[in-house]
Amino acid sequence: EHTYPQKAHIKTLKLPKNIESLCREIGSLAERMGYKAYLVGGVVRDMLMNKEVWDLDVVVEGNAIELAGELARIHGVDLHPFPEFGTAHLKIDSIKLEFATTRRETYPHPGAYPLVEFASLREDLLRRDFTINAMAVSLMSEDFGTLIDYFGGLRDLKDKLIRVLHPLSFVEDPVRILRALRFAGRLGFRLSKSTEKLLIKAVELGLLKEAPQGRIFSEIRLALREENLPEIIKLYKKYRVLESLFEGFSWDDQLERRLKGLRSVIEWHRIEFPQERLDYGWLYLMLLLLRVDAAGYMNFLNAPSWVRQGYTFLKKDLDRLLGDLKKAQKPSEVYRLLKGKHLSVLLLLMSFPEVQDRVKLYLEKLRHVKVDPREFSGLSGPDLGKAMEEKKSQLMDSLFSLNS
Ligand code: CTP
Asked: Which residues on adjacent β-strands are paired with residue 12?
């Protein structure tokens, strides 16, 4: 099969400075070995959108592990080969490279594990998820930088559309339902009309429930890391995917208001306390899952322990704590209620409007109030602790007040 179709949109890219010489080197190595090498997937999409790229996916018409091994040897870096998949990765300077042999995947029946065979570049691109992720760039010296776009990826990138390559895409790989929404949310794209129809159908068919849950939940973890997570959650809502993933989940106005509240709390915290980094994405998940029984999902999600602990605490004590906070009369009472709580719990509480000011007072002021132990000469052990706490309370109550 020829490499370029007659109708592929051809355009030559100027590769970013940080990767150009490495890419040229890969190209000439491939040539010397009698292979062909291309950049593919997300890196091509990101280059076309003028984003910085640090992760390079390279496909090789030929033996990818051998090519990667040669490159690793020249640069004196470690090679991590995966012979059963025909892939290998390595890192040169700060650039991560993943090499794979071009392959075809055929599905004996929908949803089955694919049969993997060696194939042409075109077939390798055809097995991918969306047109914008199915473009390649040649690294060969004769046409270095040439964009290879069989499926209209460049046009869809300009039109801001997520489009699958064939109607069975979501059936073959239901994880793509969530990927479609993640990319749409991240990039501010829409689903093409036909892709939208296919996605809705796939959700209605319950494919998300049937897919391997490990893969589904690692995709959710990826979504939690996205800057535009709130947009992605809106799309999850629009296409009813959470109902399908989490038994008993449903949307209502209150949950939406709380999500909005959480979003502004996170914006606030990011700016006010830049040194207190937190993986904010998990907070959205905790809030979404408060009304279902998610302890089991936390395992699937491989949630960090602060998420599990925070979630378990809130499941059990949220209502009581909200009530107590509302009733508190003095700053020192707020302090006692919130002292020692994990930041995630505090930020989630703060997204509830009725206690927002109180939690904010705690985060901004109360938790920073200090007294000097040297003022309590003669006391030690528990007595000292108690006296200091009392002093702190007095100080707080004289310095600050609660507007009810
Ligand atoms: N891919 C796919 N179907 C999937 C997962 C991945 O077709 N379920 C293909 C896509 O072509 C994708 C490539 O494999 O571009 C690499 O996958 P991944 O690294 O997850 O995607 P990126 O596009 O690189 O995503 P990101 O920008 O989030 O790194």
From this structure: 146
